[in-house]
Design a protein that fits this description.
Blueprint (H helix, E strand, L loop, with lengths): L2 H7 L11 E5 L5 H14 L13 H14 L3 E8 L2 E12 L8 E10 L8 H16 L4 E3 L7 H7 L19
Parallel strand pairs: 4-5
Antiparallel strand pairs: 1-2, 2-3, 3-4
Helix pairs in contact: 2-3
Length: 178
């Protein structure tokens, strides 16, 4: 690379698609990064009627919750990296289905987040590929997830092969004073 080319490209961000994306299993040492990514996901959906009600002490609570998830034997979190930067996260949980339905177990995918600067660069695809391998290793034949309606998330999930199969609804119940 010439000095002129180096100075012309310095400070510009190379698209994620043209850089190597690696996906690895998260460890307890990654907990601060996991908390940052998962809180960023919640904040990005701040106008949502459920996810927009973030507690003031959410960061402190998150360490206990996400730490327990990392230690669980029936779930995993994957981190996507470009170079040394963590750009995405995906959580898989081996979940029991109703005993009346097939399959017996499935993978529940949650807490998927890709940093805005790394979107549309193959990060989600790489995370889902690794999640699929995890499912295969556990004999799971299906993945399910919930996503916030609207925006680009629905289109990304559809493009990734996920079909809408149900709706989640919410109703507030008035408090009874006693």
């Amino acid at each position: 690379m010439t000095a002129r080319h180096a100075s012309a490209t310095r400070g510009t961000q190379q698209p994620a698609a043209s850089r190597q994306i690696t996906v690895r299993r998260a460890a307890l040492a990654d907990l601060p990064t996991i908390v940052d990514l998962r809180l960023a996901l919640l904040r990005e959906n701040g106008d949502h009627p459920v996810y927009g009600r973030l507690r003031v002490d959410a960061r402190e609570r998150a360490y206990d919750v996400f730490g327990a998830q990392l230690r669980s034997s029936n779930e995993v979190m994957f981190l996507a990296e470009v170079g040394s930067a963590v750009v995405g996260i995906l959580r898989c949980v081996e979940t029991l289905n109703s005993p009346l339905l097939h399959p017996d177990r499935y993978c529940y995918v949650s807490s998927v987040y890709v940093r805005p600067s790394a979107r549309r660069g193959g990060v989600l695809k790489a995370l889902l590929r690794r999640a699929g391998e995890w499912c295969g290793d556990r004999g799971l034949s299906e993945m399910r997830l919930h996503n916030v309606p609207g925006g680009s998330a629905g289109a990304a999930w559809s493009a990734s092969g996920f079909a809408v199969m149900e709706e989640v609804r919410r109703k507030e119940v008035p408090r009874v004073r006693r």
